[in-house]
Specification:
Blueprint: E1 2-4, H1 6-15, E2 19-24, H2 35-44, H3 49-68, E3 72-79, H4 85-100, E4 103-108, E5 121-125, E6 129-135, E7 141-147, H5 150-166, E8 168-169
Parallel strand pairs: 2-3, 3-4
Antiparallel strand pairs: 1-7, 2-5, 4-8, 5-6, 6-7
Helix pairs in contact: 3-4
Length: 176
């Protein structure tokens, strides 16, 4: 596997041709650029979408532009229940992503026991390239690993599609 930077990973979001699949399996992330938004969510008990709009605009614009061009973004999240505060925060902000064109589903972890899953979250681009995100125990990004190994690509594709088939669309899922 080749180690890459976040900037190198980001180029795939503009160069993929058909679909980008994202599987998230952690209950807590310590994403630096979300720290203030997450803190505000904990203090207020809701996401202030108006206050977040400038920070979220680049991602939402990317989704809108890509999906208007016929590209597909699908994200599946495997979550423990009852969910963590961080998952509540993610859930509270997901409708905005869905409105922009990203398709998001949620799979309670208790329904994932029979699925062969890779050890880390990943992006799968065009069924040909996988980028794993390896996190520290505290939820910070440790490294990103790029591979086009067909065996690994097929494992990730199979895992994602199996999770997707069992997962609940965002509009139908309420965190417990």
């Amino acid at each position: 596997m080749e180690l890459i930077s976040g900037e190198q990973r980001d180029t795939f979001f503009t160069t993929f041709t058909h679909q980008a699949l994202h599987l998230e399996m952690r209950d807590v992330y310590a994403v630096t650029d979300e720290a203030a938004r997450f803190k505000g969510f904990l203090e207020k008990g809701y996401r202030d979408h108006d206050a977040e709009v400038e920070q979220r605009r680049p991602w939402l614009t990317l989704i809108q532009t890509s999906t208007a061009a016929g590209k597909v973004f699908r994200r599946a999240r495997i979550v423990s229940e009852p969910v963590t505060d961080y998952i509540r925060y993610e859930w509270a902000g997901t409708a905005v992503n869905v409105d922009a064109g990203e398709d998001v589903r949620w799979l309670p972890r208790r329904l994932a026991s029979g699925i062969a899953l890779p050890g880390n979250d990943f992006w799968l681009f065009d069924d040909s390239t996988v980028i794993f995100t390896v996190f520290t125990g505290e939820g910070q990004v440790f490294q990103r690993q790029l591979t086009a190994n067909l065996v690994i690509v097929e494992l990730c594709k199979s895992a994602f599609e199996t999770v997707w088939a069992r997962a609940i669309p965002h509009r139908d899922y309420t965190p417990s």
